[in-house]
Structure formats: structure tokens, C-alpha cells
Amino acid sequence: MHLKEVRFHPNTDIHDFEFKARHAREFLIEGHKVKAVVVFKGREITYREFGEEIINRLTEKVDDVSKIDQALHMEGRNMIVVYTPEKGKKKSENKTMKIEEQKEGITKNAEDEE
């Protein structure tokens, strides 16, 4: 088990957030811990609620495959939360992904035959 880090800024755009959240989810499914960090630069530190909003959205995205190991806290200019993978969820998630891949493969084969 390794500790993987995903960094955000308070003004992270939607696409960038989705991309990083997808990676965090994959790390958790693989069995790694994920450290989510919101980095504040300059005067951004006065708007902590933007950082909390990003962390809350990330928590919703990975809630079904993880649990919070270390609660949301500030370390200097960084807002940090650590997620740990849930043991029972990892295997069921992998099975679900394999089933979806098989369905996509069947759909692609059917389209190729036509």
C-alpha cells in the first residue's frame, strides 16, 4: 500500500477536477491510500470555503470505495484529507468494472458484425 497524492487549487476547473477524481478513485480501487491536498497561493487562503467545497465533491466521488482516514485539516497553506480504501469494496468494484468492459466488448463486436 502506497500513499498517492492528488493536488487541487481552490479555482480548479470542472474537467481538471473530474480527471483527478477519476485517478484518486483508481488509486483507491488498487488498494492505495489517497492524500487529497488543496494548495492555497497568496491571498487565496482567505477563501477556505472553496477548498472545502472541492474536498466535499471529491469525498462524494470516492465515498463508495473509501473511508476518511484523516479528517479535513489545515497544514500551513494546505488543506488536507486522507482516504483509505475499504477492503470489501475493492473486489466488488473490480468485478463491476470487468462486467462493464465485457458488455462494451460485446457491443463493439455486434457493431463490427453489422
What do these coordinates show?
The chain is α+β, with helices and mostly antiparallel strands and 114 residues long. It has one domain (3-86): Translation initiation factor 3 (IF-3), C-terminal domain (Translation Initiation Factor IF3, 2-Layer Sandwich). 52% of the residues lie in helices and 27% in strands. The protein contains three helices and four strands. The protein has helices at 14-30, 48-62, 87-113, and strands spanning 3-8, 33-39, 66-75, 78-85. Strands 1-2-4-3 form a four-stranded mixed sheet. β1, α1 (14-30) and β2 (33-39) form a beta-alpha-beta unit. α1 (14-30) crosses α2 (48-62). The longest helix has 27 residues, at 87-113. The radius of gyration is 17 Å and the shape is globular. The N and C termini lie far apart (46 Å). The mean pLDDT is 85.
Compose a concise summary of this entry.
With 114 residues, this protein is an alpha+beta fold. It is 52% helix and 27% strand.
Features:
114 residues, alpha+beta, four-stranded mixed sheet, 4 strands, 52% helix
The CATH superfamily name is: Translation initiation factor 3 (IF-3), C-terminal domain
**Radius of gyration, CA atoms, in whole angstroms:** 17 Å
- Give the topology string: H per helix, E per strand: EHEHEEH
Largest sheet: 4 strands, mixed
Q: Within the CATH hierarchy, at the fold level, what is the topology?
A: Translation Initiation Factor IF3
CATH class: Alpha Beta
Helix content: 40-55%
Number of domains: 1
Poorly predicted runs are: none
Could you say which structural class the secondary elements and strand pairing correspond to? alpha+beta
Number of strands: 4
Our estimate of the beta-strand percent is: 25-35%
| Chain-averaged pLDDT | 85
- Judging from the principal axes of the Cα atoms, what is the shape? globular
Strand order of the largest sheet: 1-2-4-3
* Corresponding CATH architecture: 2-Layer Sandwich
How far the N terminus sits from the C terminus, by CA atoms, comes to 46 Å
In DSSP terms (H or I, runs of 4 or more residues), the helix count works out at 3
